[in-house]
């Protein structure tokens, strides 16, 4: 019989139950058994499984303590748990029971019930994974279409911008030449027509039409027009950089420069809600899909801005965690994330926004991209005091994306 690719961690301290679980599940699934909660958590963190079979009353800790520990870590919080418990203990922890992805089996343990619950949970997880992948591919195709549209518009703007910029430079030079000719002609007229009535009328006309002001103002108008065209050209260039889409192309990407591009593209949307503070520590480029990583920080920054009700602060910090990880931290002083929804914010289609103001895919997409790059995201928040999203990416690992 071919063993299922699903991995299970069973945390159970009774030897008889350990043997029963290994006999019942060992032929069909890749199962590891831990006799203590501490060892079980270590197994889960080292190699996250697809399902956790957990006895609630262990010698070193309660199962509900382990569940709380798992739910506090983003990369582990969506793993389904089958809890082996006494009915009385379940009632004692009824509030904790509101956590998603938990099933239960009452003691004493039954082989048929175990097989049934394990099969159901893993089938459900398989369906959820397929749905997430479908959402992912849909979003990437949508992003691809948007990028191509933006890229096309940007390139269409480049040619007329070039004409306008060239003409403005020419206009400034012509303006200077024309006024040089006028000044030269005026000097000649004055040298031959001292006291002439027409000369006095000419000077009066210059005063009436504010000639000196017009002369200077034309220079200012041309300079301001050129500055405006340069700003538009810079925006178009950044749109081209942002919309460059190399599908699944892994290459060296400068994380901090990528964030700067995102900040430039979304400057108006972000700065009207927050002052942006950057504390970069000069992290080196890493191998990744650069446009996808840019999308992660786009979604996190927009989410941070939307969490600020009036005007606040968004702080971006970067650094290293040991030798193997880099991190980017986005901190806002917005409304924060209520504890009861913190475990759901990366779920596809989960949104706290009013209907029509978001479909709840931004954070789900960010989580998926980071996970596919073998990284993870941590979230810290206190309601009313803002939120902190920490993105961790491996430094020395090249993602093998499909």
UniProtKB/TrEMBL annotation:
Residues 7-122 form the Response regulatory domain. InterPro entries: CheY-like_superfamily, HATPase_C_sf, HATPase_dom, His_kinase_dom, HisK_dim/P_dom, HisK_dim/P_sf, Sig_transdc_His_kin-like_C, Sig_transdc_resp-reg_receiver. Pfam families: HATPase_c, Response_reg. Its EC number is 2.7.13.3. It is an enzyme of class 2 (transferase). It catalyses: ATP + protein L-histidine = ADP + protein N-phospho-L-histidine. Transmembrane segments: none annotated. GO terms for molecular function: phosphorelay sensor kinase activity. Keywords: Phosphoprotein. Residues 152-397 form the Histidine kinase domain. The keyword Coiled coil does not apply. The keyword Phosphoprotein applies. It comes from the Bacteria. SMART domains: HATPase_c, REC. This is histidine kinase.
């Amino acid at each position: 019989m071919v063993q299922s690719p699903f991995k299970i961690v069973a945390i159970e301290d009774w030897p008889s139950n350990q043997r029963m679980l290994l006999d019942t599940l060992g032929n069909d699934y890749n199962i590891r058994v831990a006799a203590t909660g501490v060892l079980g958590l270590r197994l889960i963190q080292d190699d996250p499984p697809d399902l956790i079979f957990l006895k609630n009353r262990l010698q070193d800790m309660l199962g509900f303590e382990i569940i709380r520990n798992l739910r506090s870590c983003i990369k582990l919080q969506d793993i389904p748990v089958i809890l082996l418990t006494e009915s009385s203990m379940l009632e004692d922890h009824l509030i904790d029971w509101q956590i998603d992805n938990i099933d239960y089996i009452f003691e004493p343990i039954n082989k048929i019930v175990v097989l049934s619950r394990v099969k159901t949970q893993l089938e459900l997880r398989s369906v959820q994974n397929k749905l997430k992948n479908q959402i992912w591919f849909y979003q990437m195709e949508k992003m691809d279409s948007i990028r191509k549209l933006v890229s096309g518009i940007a390139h269409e703007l480049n040619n007329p911008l070039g004409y306008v910029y060239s003409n403005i430079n020419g206009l400034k030079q012509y303006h200077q030449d024309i006024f040089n000719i006028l000044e030269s002609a005026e000097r000649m007229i004055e040298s031959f027509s001292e006291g002439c009535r027409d000369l006095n009328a000419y000077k009066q006309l210059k005063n009436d039409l504010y000639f000196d002001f017009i002369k200077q103002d034309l220079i200012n108008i041309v300079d301001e027009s050129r500055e405006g065209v340069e700003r538009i050209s810079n925006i178009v260039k950044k749109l081209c950089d942002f919309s460059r889409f190399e599908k699944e192309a892994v290459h060296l990407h400068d994380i901090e420069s990528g964030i700067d591009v995102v900040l430039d593209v979304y400057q108006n949307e972000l700065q009207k809600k927050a002052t942006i503070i950057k504390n970069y520590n000069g992290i080196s480029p890493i191998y990744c899909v650069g446009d996808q990583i840019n999308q992660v920080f786009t979604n996190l920054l927009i989410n941070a801005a939307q969490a600020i009700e009036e005007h606040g602060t968004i702080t971006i910090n970067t650094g290293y965690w040991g030798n193997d990880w880099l991190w980017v931290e986005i901190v806002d002083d917005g409304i924060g994330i209520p504890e009861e929804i913190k475990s759901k914010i990366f779920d596809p289609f989960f949104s706290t926004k009013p209907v029509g103001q978001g479909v709840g895919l931004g954070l789900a997409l960010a989580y998926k991209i980071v996970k596919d790059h073998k990284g993870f995201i941590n979230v810290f928040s206190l309601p009313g005091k803002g939120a902190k999203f920490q993105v961790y990416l491996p430094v020395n690992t090249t993602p093998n994306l499909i």
